[in-house]
Design goal:
By secondary structure, the protein is mostly helical. It has six helices and no strands. It holds the Pfam family VanZ. This is VanZ family protein.
Amino acid sequence: MQRLGPGGTVAPRLRVTCLLLLVAHLLTVGWLMLRPRTVPWVPAPNLEPLASISAELSHGPWEAVRELGGGLLLLAPLGVLLPLAAGRLNVSPLASLARTVFAGAMISLTVELLQTAVPGQVPDVDTVLLNTVGVALAHLAVVPGLRSRLRRREERRGGRTPRITRVGPAPQADVLSGSRTYL
């Protein structure tokens, strides 16, 4: 079982594991999204919000689920890995969600901007929107419950390690009282 570190933080071993998974996931996303593709024809970049989402919805429900679901799931693990890599348990849920969604949006935007220089890859503003929504949904689905579970585990163990307050000098005592009397 994971022990909680001082101050309501996740154990360092869990934080390091999440950080390694985060790096592995980002490397995989970078490899998938930034490798050159050989295609005979490349469409124009989509800079109009919700245009490609509505086009996918017009192709039918199964095609839309496949295409839009991929956009939602691509960066969704960031919604869980970023807060756990930070390791704080006692944090405002709204602030945690805002930080995580902002970081996910910036990572998605960076990937889309880097795609402009890669042959065969086409930047799409709707991909940024879908990736950001995926990060938010994953965060909302997993992180609050996981944090409360880790906090309950901490409380069952008796909370944090008690800290000893500063100890002052002991009161003067007659060590030999009772055995000898001095005049």
